[in-house]
Each structure stands twice: as structure tokens, then as C-alpha cells.
Amino acid sequence: MAVVVLTPGANVGIPECSRILVAVGWEPKSVAGMEIDASVFMVKADGKVPDDGYFVFYGAQSSPDGSVRFLPSPPTGFASDVQAFEVEPGKVSADVESIDVCVTLHEGQVRGQSFGSLTGVFARLVDPSSGHEVARFDLPVAGMKETAITLAKVYRRNGQWKIRAVGQGFVGGLAPLARQYGVDVADDASTPPPVQEKPAPPPPPPAPKPVSLTKVTLEKRGQSVSLEKKAGEGFGEIVFNLNWNQRPEKKGGFLGRILGGNKGIDLDLGCLWELEDGDKGVIQALGEAWGEYRSEPFIRHAGDDRTGAIAQGENIRINGDKLSKIKRILVFAFIYEGVPNWAAADGVATVKVPGQHDIEVRLDNPASGQGMCAIALIENDKGKLKVTKEEQYFRGHLDMDKAYRWGLRWVAGSKN
Amino acid sequence: MAISLSKGGNVSLSKSEPGLKRILIGLGWDARSTDGADFDLDASAFMLGSNHKVPNEKAFIFYNNLKSIDGSVEHTGDNKTGSGDGDDEAIKVDLDLLPADVQTVAVTVTIHDAEGRKQNFGQVKNAFIRIVNDETDKEIARYDLSEDYSTETAMIFGEIYRHNEDWKFRAVGQGYSGGLAAMCAQYGIDVA
């Protein structure tokens, strides 16, 4: 029988049999500091588990109805298979409509890993009586930021069992994936909050106080604050600061290894700017495009901190009294040298506006392998100063420019 | 219970739905629960002459042109995410108001930017398109896009057409590549 190769979204009927195996695997099979697990959620028509027992994984290897078993060592004789599930369709509880096979990267987000870090992830439907592969799905991993996905689902359809290739999931890992299926999994203490697709409602603008040490933290992507200027005054000098940690090497530690010994990370702060009159450009250390504070574009880079050792980090000064001439500023950080590992950089950006609370943007959803991070968007919102947390990762200037439709021309450059 | 129409099958609306005046085409799907780009499905209608082309672009009813000049075909508006229950987009056709030179109303469903977002119907949960007698709410035909058109990104759902004094519906159910732009080209519209 010919093997059916599934693409994401595609489905095929499963020939009637008393037992089937769903084997999963990934390449490379083993990476230091990376922990990958397969699991199954058996769900009702509403997409939720009947109870937590229907979450089958290494810690709970059999479903309450006895229909699904986790096999840590697949008996398929196929070297690439890493884990497998044995399913007896006839025993599946009548209210279970779908058996969703998932793969998760343990603490992937914290460690700066995602399925995009792997070269392959696959699911195979195998007939255990013959060992023959019936269907196969190779997940297109390139560019994936997810750390927990539903790989495939085995489901009922008009009295027949079918398999569907899915390949969708969550950047935030197992917790949001499990929540989707109605299973509460405690967030790992070190796991940052899951990424939300929809922007959270912005906090009320801070009331102006004479002196305040309070900070406004933009927690989630898309969250923003708007600052109003006082009557008859401008915003004064707005300072955008980026600070990050240069961590000492941990002996044999995972971070130490990926940081390449004690070589620090060189983060460069820069921004794309666009004025109301349509003029636009970039400010960054590369090419010594430092900008101007008193004349256009009214933005000035305060110098380059190559190692992170200077306590105050890097600063960009924005002439807030000229906000009316400015349309938008996209502040970014670029890892110029070293492995682009944002988790290790532990970056914190702060927007300081005279007489206002400091606005803090933490880079706490780090993505690996992408050297460019768009941190925050500063916009002139009808005279208000609007700051939005972006924290979007890109391969480089060009990709970021495209995503924000800035429209600059980019050529490669280097810095001495 | 909807009549089960196989691909290419047709039904006489005048016989199965006597006195039928108003038709509703409903398109529904579930909003994405996972991370990633939203699924944005679009229903569109092309009011075709006897040459199977639109006479002009005003006869192409879609998210940027919600109502025909004569008022016979009306789109209820663009839904870009699939949020909400039941039909997320609908097109209403008033048969009595259709101009005499309109021979056929072709109905299509497409995924917006399917290529850029690497999406197909199979990745969307519970996507369907159906044709309903708008006066009695009786479903005339329905396709399950998620299940039966899983690897497609666009399809011609069907054609409401004149046959002598009769109105008929042909369930075309034909997958199509190239999205809405390709559909437009087929029906005689230049897309910028």
C-alpha cells in the first residue's frame, strides 16, 4: 500500500484495524540543553479533555479507557522514531472525538529554542501488524517560533477514523497548549507569561505626579501607553535606554556554551524614524548614523556600548519638543556579534520622559537565531506620545523594515 | 436536512423550494485558537452574463463592493478572523431583483493571502459554505471545507443560474489555485 504523505491541513482515512501506532520523531534526535516530549490529548467534540486522565505522556502513560498507551521506545524498528503512541480505536471512550498528538519543547521559550531550531519533526502512522507506514507528515519547521504544537490528530468522522496533519501551536509552550485542551498545567516558575495574540487592554495613562519612582511595565506585545503633554509645554528630552546583562560564564553550563565562552554579546541600539513630512531613515552605530537632536530628525544616538559593561547601557535621545514633526520611531536592538541568544542578553528597555513614569519594556519572549529585535514603537498619536511594546524578532534590518512597511533601501555594512 | 449534492450535481430551486425569492449564502469558520496569522476567509459573488463574464466590475460583489447597483446581491460584510457563531460572512441574493441580463450568479470562497500565510482550508477549524432558503432557513446544500477541501485555498462553491423560467443551483465544488485574483481573471475582471 502506498504511503500517504500529508501536508499541513490534509487528512486521510485510516484503514480499519484493531491497533495503530503513531510514531513521532525529530532531527537532530538529541541536542544538548534541549528537551522534547510527545504527548496526547484525547478530546471531546468541544475540543476539551473529559478529565485530566486523557492527557497521556511520559508521566501518565495510559488513558483511563485503556485505548491509548505511551511508548517511550517505539517498537517500529524505524531508527528515526523517538516516541510513539499505541491506539486501539475500538476501545476509545465514546465521547472522545479526537486524539491529538502533540510535541513540546520543555522550557523552550526561556531557553530561546523553538521548532524552528530543529531540522525536522515528523509523525508516522504505522500498522503494527505489518510495520508498514500508512501515512506520514513532515512538519515544515523553517521559521517556526512555536515551542508546543499539535502535530497531528486521529479523529472520528462519519463512523470512520481519519488522521489529519495539523502543525499549529503556541509560542508560549505546553501551558497554553494544555489550556486549549482544558488541562491546567502549572506554568514553570521560570517561564515567561504566554504570548497573547490579541493586545491586552492598555493600562490607564499614569497620572502626573511631582516625583515618582513607579514604573509602567509593558508586559505583553501590542500593549501600549499614551502620554499627554502638559499645557504649553513639550515633552522635553525623551531618553530611550537599552540595558542588558553580560553574564559571566557558567562552568560547563548551557548558557556558557552557547555564549561561546566569556565572549560578551554586542547589542546595538538603533531606530527607524519617519517624520510627518515623509522623510525617513535609520539611526544606528553601524555606518555611524548618529542622527541630530536640534535639527531633523530630532533624534540622536548617544554612543556605542560594545560590551554591556557600561552600567547605563545605550541611549537614544528624542527631542520631545519636536514631537509634532515626528510620525513614528521604531526602536530596535541588533546583536552585531555572537550567537543571537536573547534569553542570555536579558535586555531591558526604558523610556524616560521628564515628569512621567518610566516605561519599561522587557525582552522576555526571546527567540533564538534571529539577530534583530524590534523593541518598541513610539508614535505621535495626535499630539500624544504613544509607546507600544513590540518585541518582534527578525533575521535582520530588511525583514524588519518589510514587516513595518518602512520602505528604506538596505545594503550590507560593517562596523570597525 | 440539506440535500446532499455531489460535485457537479444540480437542483431545481423552483421545484425544491417553490416560491423561493431570497437566497442566503453562508460562510462560517472558527477563529484561530493557536498562535499565528488569523484565517481570513472571503465569500464573493460574480453576476455573470450569458458569456459567463461580468459586464463590469460593479457586478463583482465582495468585501470592497458590498452591494450590486440594483440591490439584488448583497454581502453582509468582511469578517477577517472567523470570530462569532454560525455564518461569519453571508451573501444575500434576491432573485426577483436580478436584472434580466444576469444569467448566472457564481459564488466563490477564498482564503485571503493564503500563499503568504501558508494556509489552506484544512488548517481552519469547522469551515463550511452553504446555500440556504432565506425565507424558510432551509439549507439547500453545504460543503465542509475543512474536511473535504483541506488542501485547497480557494473554491467555486456553486452557480445559481436561469434555466428557461426556472432558477437552478449547480454545486460546482471545484478547488482553484491563485486565490481571488485568479477567480476575477476567470470571470473577466482585471485586478491591479
Automatic annotation (TrEMBL), chain A:
Residues 191-209 have a biased composition (Pro residues). One of its GO terms (biological process) is response to tellurium ion. It comes from the Bacteria. The keyword Zinc does not apply. It holds the Pfam family TerD. Keywords: Tellurium resistance. This is Tellurium resistance protein terA. It comes from Magnetospirillum molischianum DSM 120.
From TrEMBL, chain B:
Keywords: Tellurium resistance. It comes from the Bacteria. The keyword Transcription does not apply. Pfam families: TerD. Residues 1-187 form the TerD domain. Signal peptide: none annotated. GO terms for biological process: response to tellurium ion. Belongs to the CAPAB/TerDEXZ family. This is Tellurium resistance protein terD.
